[in-house]
Structure formats: C-alpha cells, structure tokens
Write a structure and sequence with these properties.
By secondary structure, the protein is of the alpha/beta class. It contains 17 helices and 27 strands.
Length: 657
C-alpha cells in the first residue's frame, strides 16, 4: 500500500512541474507535499468506506468480480509508473514542431475494484492507521519524486546528487564506466534536441551543449536550432504575412471594399516574430530540462573520443571546462555560405534577413534553391522590387521539371525578375548607401540589399574533428556516417544537416530519434530516407513526394504520367490567371504510384496526406477507388483517370506500344 501510494504521489508531482514559456526558478515543494497529504488522507478514508481490507489492494481484479475503474496517472518522459511500462512502446511522445514537441502525459489505466474480494473485517483503529499511512506515503512520494525545475540562470549548475531510484541507477552505471555522462550532444537543434530527449527517456544521462539560449545576432541560431530561430518557423510566419497583400486584392472580387493605399508596418512584424521565437526558446529550454537533460550553454569541441571541451566563446584558446561521456553525438547543423567575391561583406544571408530593420525597396536574391526562391516571393509580397539571379538554366534542382517551369512563370507574373545563367562578379557600395551588383556578363543591377542564398555548409569549424580522426567529405565538409549515423570513429555519431544527407528538419528529427532508440532503447532503427516529402513555400507553394518524371524515366521501363492543370476555384471570381499543376507518376508494370507533385495553393498540406499513401506503396487503383472531397483541388489526385502520356525506355509517347 505504502509503495503504491508513493508512486501516485510521484506522478502527481510530475503533473505540477511548470511548463510555462520561460525558465522558472526552483521554489518550495511544501504546497505540493501538503496537497499530497490531503489527497492521501482522502484516498484512505474512501478506502475505509468500502469496507475492503488491505489484501484487496494487492489482489488481481477479474472481469467477473466487478467493473474496473480507470484511474489516469500522468507519466513523465522516461519515468513509467511502478509496475507499469510506457504506453505504445515509447516513454516519450515523438513530435515535430507546431504545438507538439512538448512532453506528453500518457494515461496509464490502473484497475481498482469497488468491492471487497474475500477481505476480512478490521477494527476501526486499523483503518485509521491505514488512512494515515496513505497520507504519509503520498507526501513522501510527492517529495522524493520531485524533479529539479530549470534554474533562473544558465548554464545549469553542477549535477546534483541522485534522488530517485532511476537517477541512482544511472549514476551507478555512469560511475562504473568513469564518465560524467552516457551521452554528450553538441548542438540543440532539431536532431540534437530529439536525440537528447528520447535518450534521456530511455534512461541515459545526457548533457546537451548549445552556444546560445536566445535567438538573434551574433549567433542567430539558439536552443531549438536553425528551424526555430532562423529557418522554418520565422520563414513561415513571414510567408503568411506576405500573402495578405495578394488576399487584399482578391477580396474586392468577393464584395469587400478594401481601402486603397494600405501600408505595412515592418517593425511590428519583426517585433511580433521575435516575441514568438523567444517564446519558443523558453519552451525548448523547459522541455529539455524537464525531460532530464542537462542543458549547458557553451561551444563544444572534441578533445578525444570521450571528452568534449566547453568554451563560452568559440575562439577561446583554452576551454572553460571539459566533460566526458561514453558516446558523443554531433548535431551542429549548417551555416549559410557566401562565395568569396569582391564586396561579399556588403551581402546578407538568410540569418540577417530575419532581422532587417526595414523591408528593402529593392533586393537582389542570389541563388536557385528553395531558400532563395521562398525569400524572393516573401519580399515581393511585402512590396519590394525583387531580382533573383541564378547561375543555372532553371531553379529548384531536384524537383519535377514541369513544376519548376510552372512556378517560374507564376513568379514572373507577380513581377519578380528572374535572371537565369547569371552570376554576380562583384558588389559595390554606393555613396547613398545603396548597392550595385555587377554580373559576370557585365550587367548592373542597383539594389538596397543583396541577399545570398547559395547553399549551406556543415557548421563544423573548430569542432576538432581532425583531432579524433572523424572522416569528412573533402568537397562538402559533411561528416561521413553509416546507416546508423555512426562516424568513422567508434562512439561518435552525427545526425542532421552536418551529414548532408537530406537537409530537412523532419529528417533530422527522424535521425535523432532512430539514434536514441538504437543506442539506448534496445531497438534496431536505421533512418529511412526513401520517399521523404518536401515543400517549397513560394507563392504559389510547391509540394512533392516520391520521384520525379525524369527520375522515373531513368529507372523504369514503362511509366505512365497523369497530369492536370486548372484555375483554382477561388480565382474564378478574381480573374487571376494563376493555375494549379498536379502530377502522378506511375509504374505501368506494378501500377504503383512512384511520385506525387503539385504546385498551387495548399500544396504542402495536400502533399502531406499524399506522402502517407506513397510511403504505404499505394497503387493508381487505390487512388482511383478513393472518393474525393468536393469541391477541393485535392480531389483531382483521385479523379485523373487517363494518362497524359507514357515514357517507354526513356522515350515519351502518347500510347503504349
């Protein structure tokens, strides 16, 4: 009885851990203890009222004896209830960004009978003692089961003495191996955070190193990584804002008298964006510490295969301290690359683009990847005159050719000037503070801001990879890993963009989760990089999953291509010329859908659902047998009955031979 009630007290305290937006200082635990004592006393008195003896609490309820009552007990990541395992095979809920990513409160049903099962009648004194024991047990469980809250200042102080049985066991294991930790993770981005949380949930003692706890210059990225601070999240917020200018124009066709001369307040946008990112920084810090991860502020570098030096400044000659672990995980991500050309000091990258004091009136965006394309559309939406320069003949390499061509036309129709086969030779600052971009062909384009989005490189400078012999790609600088994310050195692993496999946030999350499950969860999980869905948040957006038409033609003998283009229903009243393009790539021999592609409104949302079907190996027959949602653009994917054309051994034809 004592230990069962103490476990309930333990769970109760877990539910009281603050999960606010910012770190909170440790405070008194006595209110929780007092409340626990009251609940324990009430439970004891309620038990007295049933007339059941102590033995009934240890008996196994049967389906015929009585109707069981499910009592929800909130479990915390890495800590299951006494005698009960975690639900669904994992003690921590896996999640990505967007309201998720918080520790979950799983519900573990505990069956308690409502009638005595052969219990003997006991004296009143016996029941009073039982009630008091229940109250004491609950209070003790509440007190002993407490977890330290995030301290008011970072970095986290020296490791405290273990208190719970789980912490004692971990401490014994670690001391047995003469290491400070089981795992040190360098980098609190998407992959590092996920790997840390899941590893801690599996019982590992984890330290997580991150140079900054708050976003903004000079580090720009912070806890949460590129995605949260200077990537996916602020980018998507700016995309949302940029779309309003188009919506205002379209609203008139639907009867809204929108005033002319509407202006935009860039300062207010930046303030609100910064406030949201700061909120997320706080959530990530709380989430990590409450998951049992020791979050340390500092730059980490390898000393040897089990030792990491910690520096407050990246370029400090001597470390402030060193820590050791059995395993080390590198999750440092990437950093924007600007080529070495005259005037590069006048250029900005995507990092600085999120902190511009005002929206430029004229901007040159250099690059042809998704970052360059998205920012071209973003700045155009806020009213800037945009010129996009790309050295190739068509941007967005790797995406389906029809979609690339279609998006190019849509962007040009919005007034974006796209200069293909163009490379800047130099950037010069003018007397009035503006810039002049001169191309290799001698063309000159004046602008207020020149933004380079010409790729990202692994952020491994000063990491000490050469000291321990970690192999890197000589061309890209990416850390080489095997199928389990292990580097060339035993005990050192790497996930995320630093490996240059697929540089997307959900992929880094997946790789980090697989690492933790394999190394500490007793599982055998290799990251699966096949059929990874992706989106470009341009205007209109582009979504894709599976292989392109060109890739299918190179790999399959006979391919059927289903293609449809139409005006979105919303624009039948606006008169806009914008159109949607959708494609299905099908293997004729097996009827399997090899790829799904779309450029048009809500493409990312629609393609996420299509990705499930492609991942499951859906056939064209499966698509055809699915009833569409009407009226919607998405229904077009299940109503394209006849192939637009075929590709047989690389040759395009109208009919199969």
């Amino acid at each position: 009885i004592f230990f069962r009630t103490m476990a309930v007290g333990n769970a109760y305290y877990d539910m009281t851990i603050p999960m606010g937006d910012a770190p909170t200082a440790s405070g008194s635990k006595m209110p929780a203890v007092a409340l626990g004592a009251v609940f324990g006393l009430a439970a004891g008195l309620a038990l007295l009222g049933t007339g059941a003896g102590p033995a009934s609490l240890f008996s196994t309820p049967t389906a015929t004896a009585t109707t069981p009552t499910a009592v929800p007990l909130a479990t915390f990541p890495g800590r299951s209830m006494a005698g009960a395992g975690p639900l669904y095979g994992s003690p921590v809920a896996s999640s990505g960004f967007g309201g998720a990513g918080r520790p979950s409160a799983d519900v573990q049903p505990v069956l308690m009978t409502t009638a005595a099962q052969g219990a003997q009648t006991s004296p009143s004194l016996h029941w009073a003692a039982l009630a008091a024991l229940s109250a004491a047990a609950f209070a003790i469980g509440t007190f002993l089961g407490r977890r330290p809250t995030h301290p008011a200042t970072l970095p986290v102080p020296e490791q405290q003495q273990p208190q719970t049985l789980q912490e004692i066991a971990i401490a014994a294991y670690t001391s047995q191996h003469n290491y400070d930790y089981d795992l040190i993770v360098i980098g609190a981005g998407s992959g590092g955070v996920r790997a840390s949380r899941i590893s801690a949930g599996h019982g590992a003692k984890v330290a997580l190193l991150e140079p900054s706890m708050a976003h903004g210059p000079p580090n720009y990225s912070a806890v949460g990584g590129t995605c949260v601070n200077v990537g996916c999240v602020p980018k998507k917020l700016m995309v949302y804002g940029s779309e309003y200018s188009h919506d205002f124009e379209d609203a008139r066709a639907y009867g809204w008298d929108v005033p002319t001369g509407i202006t935009h307040n860039w300062t207010r946008l930046m303030e609100n964006k910064n406030k949201e990112i700061s909120r997320l920084n706080g959530i990530y810090k709380n989430m990590l510490v409450n998951s049992g991860v020791n979050l340390l502020e500092g730059w980490g570098s390898l000393v040897d295969t089990h030792t990491v030096a910690v520096r407050s400044s990246r370029d400090s000659p001597e470390p402030d301290s060193t820590i050791t672990a059995e395993k080390i995980l590198i999750a440092v991500g990437g950093w924007p690359f600007i080529p070495d050309i005259p005037g590069k000091e006048h250029c900005i990258s995507s990092n600085e683009a999120f902190y511009l004091p005002e929206c430029p009136k004229r901007i040159v965006v250099v690059g042809g990847g998704y970052i360059a394309t998205e920012f071209s559309c973003i700045f155009r939406g806020y009213g800037a005159q945009v010129t996009q320069m790309y050295r190739g003949s068509m941007f967005l390499n790797g995406f389906d050719d029809d979609l690339r061509t279609h998006l190019c036309g849509e962007m040009q129709a919005q007034g974006i000037e796209i200069m293909f086969n163009t490379n800047p030779a130099k950037i010069e600052k003018q007397a009035d503070g503006s810039l002049l971009v001169t191309t290799e062909a001698g063309e000159q384009v004046p602008c207020d801001v020149c933004m380079y989005a010409t790729g990202r490189k692994p952020y491994t400078r000063g990491l000490g990879l050469d000291k321990v012999g970690v192999e890197v790609n000589p061309k890209s600088g990416a850390i080489m890993v095997d199928e389990y994310s292990k580097t060339s050195v035993d005990g050192i692993y790497c996930v995320g963009d630093a490996t240059n496999r697929i540089n997307l946030t959900p992929v880094a999350l997946h790789e980090g989760h697989c690492f933790a499950d394999t190394e500490y969860g007793g599982m055998n999980r290799k990251p699966d990089h096949e059929n990874v869905a992706a989106a470009v948040f341009s205007n209109p957006p582009l979504g894709t999953v599976g292989i392109t038409e060109a890739e299918a033609a190179a790999s399959y003998d006979r391919v059927a291509v289903f293609k449809s283009g139409f005006r979105p229903m919303v624009h039948t009243l606006t008169g806009s010329s914008t159109r949607v393009v959708m494609k299905l790539i099908v293997d004729v021999a097996t009827d399997k859908v090899l790829g799904v592609h779309m450029c048009g409104p809500e493409a990312a949302e629609i393609l996420q659902g299509m990705a499930v079907a492609v991942k499951m190996g859906a056939t064209k027959h499966d698509f055809d047998s699915t009833i569409g949602i009407h009226p919607s653009a998405a229904e077009e994917f299940v109503t394209m009955r006849s192939p637009s054309y075929f590709i047989v051994k690389g040759e395009k034809m109208d009919k199969l031979p």
